[in-house]
Amino acid sequence: MAALVALTAGTYAGAPRAGSPAAGSPARTATAAGAAGTDPNIPFVCQDRRPQAADPNAYGMQLDGSFLAPASTPLDEENPHPFPGRRAEYDGRQYVKNMTVEAAYEGYDFTPDFFHTWQNIVDFDGRRYMFQYDRSEGRVYDITDVKHVKVVEKMSREDVGGDESKANGTWAAGDYWGASTIQWNDRLRAYVMVQSFEDKRQITELGDEPGKDKYGNPEGVAKLRAKPGLKGFKVYRLNGPRKADWQLISTVSTDSTQPDPLHSDPNRPQQGSGSLDVPYWDGGKYMFIAVAPNDTYANTEYPTNLHSAGYQSYDMSDPSAPKLLDTWHLPGQVTGEEEAYARNPRCGNRTSWLGARMSLFVPTPVERGGRYGFAVQGGLGMTVLDISDPARMRQVGHVDLPPSVAGTEGDNIDVSQFQRTGMIYVSGYPLTEDCYEPYKPIYQIDARDPANPRIVGQLPRPTPPKSAGITDYCQRRGSFGPKRTGYYTNPGRHDDGTLVYGFYNAGAQVFDVKNPARPEIEAYFVPKAFGTKTRDWPTEDGTFPEWAMGNQTHGVYVEWDRNVVWVLTNHGIYALSAKDVLGRPNLGRPKEPFRNSGS
Q1: Is residue 34, in this structure, part of any structural domain at all?
Q2: What are the residues facing 142 on neighbouring strands?
Q3: What does the pLDDT read at residue 32?
Q4: Is residue 6 included in any domain, yes or no?
Q5: Is beta strand 372-376 parallel, antiparallel or unpaired with respect to 323-328?
Q6: How confident is the model over 498-508, as pLDDT tens digits?
Q7: Residue 37 confidence (pLDDT)
């Protein structure tokens, strides 16, 4: 396939505010798009430079016990990649340092999904509840007594095979539980949930391999474009912890071609990505979401993703009628901006996620005097935005992230330490098992000068204890690397100098960053890799399925007001304390209801 634009040697440096192709950069016609039929929004910008399978002799265990990662790999989430020194079996033991397991809950009721879930916490009538969910599978737990958690409600589409187009006793056709933020809203004197409705990422229409991906499968692309459904977000007032207590107060389409975003037709196809992952909103006036507002936001290499998301700001003064204020993206994300896109060294690799996955990360809400929002967009790097006027978001700084292909190169930013030290923590996460991709570091970025953020270090790479019988977590089987530090609002006040990351097969890792020049791992909990035999698991004999063993610890949620860490795994939930690190835990009723962090 002939290249449309030659790949330059320069890195991708975000230019100032973009809303159209860069000045002096004529829009280019994708003449090579014949491989994708007539769809004009498949980015045939650079020639195919997809990574080749890694030479098995060029990576693996070293003589000093460390692991040398492959330089680059193609996207390959489904297959194991054994190497000399890797364990033949998954590890059934757990490892603990400076933490106490207060309670453990496993089985189907505590595992809505084996690979990923979202969480939220709310308080009603003196009781504390946790929501755990992933699209059609959801659970509500009463966690007031940490040692005696009760299942309050279970939501599922299991009886219709998980088909979101079908209604059942729990869900209407096309409805599900999208990634949500739940915040106390003073105007309504109630919790309000903003729930993302987005492109489904695990799809059958396209695949990772050449010929099945968006570059060589025009039929699959056309089927995705033709799918009906809301692209945007829904807003609910919560009158209690159960689904029956949700009161829908607004439905917003983020498709910029809709004449009325508050009254769109979800029975017809809508353009763009919808709102991605968790919206940023603290219950006040302004909200920020990650979104591709139409199908021209298309320039990403990822083989099964059709959209490259930027950001939008909304006025949420009236949650029943959210108002769009502004849309922002980096040059190169939109069809017609090929010259800027081609400057990214990932152009043509048919692998990298380019665009936002999460919303802006905001250290201080605008209403409380906050000025900056931090944006990480996969292989597009990290951008600092001035959001002091949310109706005019403005770029003030940018830093590229070192290429790390495959896997997600930039997904999460922890900004909890920014006010104290000016440091933010930026990370991606692994997509493959057995470390068959470059390691995903947690970058320390000095943002004290927001116009010139710079990478100044990395958090320590977790290493297993001697009792594990291995010297690197890559040997433990499954995925290894950081996920996220939970959520931007949690009950209570975030501890200065403490970060808790989910780390897949390395469990929950607690970092001490009080001195940014000498970060340390001060505690950890690494659970077993799989669940015990139970009739809940979807196998005939009740054993835990091997295909579900790879994504082990995929989430953490910290109740800073009770000093309790919830660890969300592929086989259940653990409640942990760390008295010497977080302080003495309260395992009973919270002293105050959770409204939002810092309040």
Answers
A1: no
A2: 129, 150
A3: 46
A4: no
A5: unpaired
A6: 999 999 999 99
A7: 57
pLDDT at site 113: 96
Q: Give first-to-last CA distance, the chain, whole Å.
A: 57
Beta-strand runs (E) in 303-461: 310-315, 323-328, 372-376, 382-386, 394-399, 408-414, 423-429, 442-446, 454-458
Q: What is the dihedral of CA 199, 77, 431, 164, to 10 degrees?
A: 30
Q: Using CA atoms, how far apart are residues 570 and 547, in angstroms rounded to an integer? A: 11
The residue to which tokens 């607690």 are assigned: 510
Can the peptide bond before residue 406 be classed as cis, meaning omega within 30 degrees of 0? yes
- Residues 126, 194: Cα–Cα separation, whole Å: 23
Residue 166 one-letter amino acid: K
Q: Is residue 29 part of a domain?
A: no
Cα–Cα distance for residue pair 53/70, rounded to 1 Å: 9
Tally of domains within the chain: 1
The tens digit of pLDDT for each residue in 238-267 reads 999 999 999 999 999 999 999 999 999 999
Predicted confidence (pLDDT) at residue 36 exceeds the cutoff of 80: no
> Residue 79 and residue 209: Cα distance in Å, rounded?
13
The Cα 128–Cα 131 span in angstroms is 10
Q: What contacts 24+ positions apart, CB below 8 Å, involve 532-535?
A: 532/106, 534/106, 534/107, 534/108
In this predicted structure, the answer to whether residue 291 has a pLDDT above a threshold of 90 is: yes
Question: Residue 155: in which H helix or E strand, if any?
Answer: strand 150-155
**Which structure tokens are listed for 509?**
């890792």
Q: Is residue 38 part of a domain?
A: no
Amino acid type, 521? I
Average pLDDT, the chain: 93
CATH number where 362 lies: 2.130.10.10
Q: At 542, list the tokens.
A: 């009740």
Give the span between the Cα atoms of 482 and 504, in whole angstroms: 7
Residue whose token pair is 């990649």 = 81
Domain holding 248, by residue range, is 60-161+178-577
What's the CA dihedral at 295, 298, 303, 309 to 10 degrees?
-90
CA separation for the pair 133, 136 (Å, rounded): 8
Tokens of 18: 């973009």
Predicted pLDDT at 331: 98
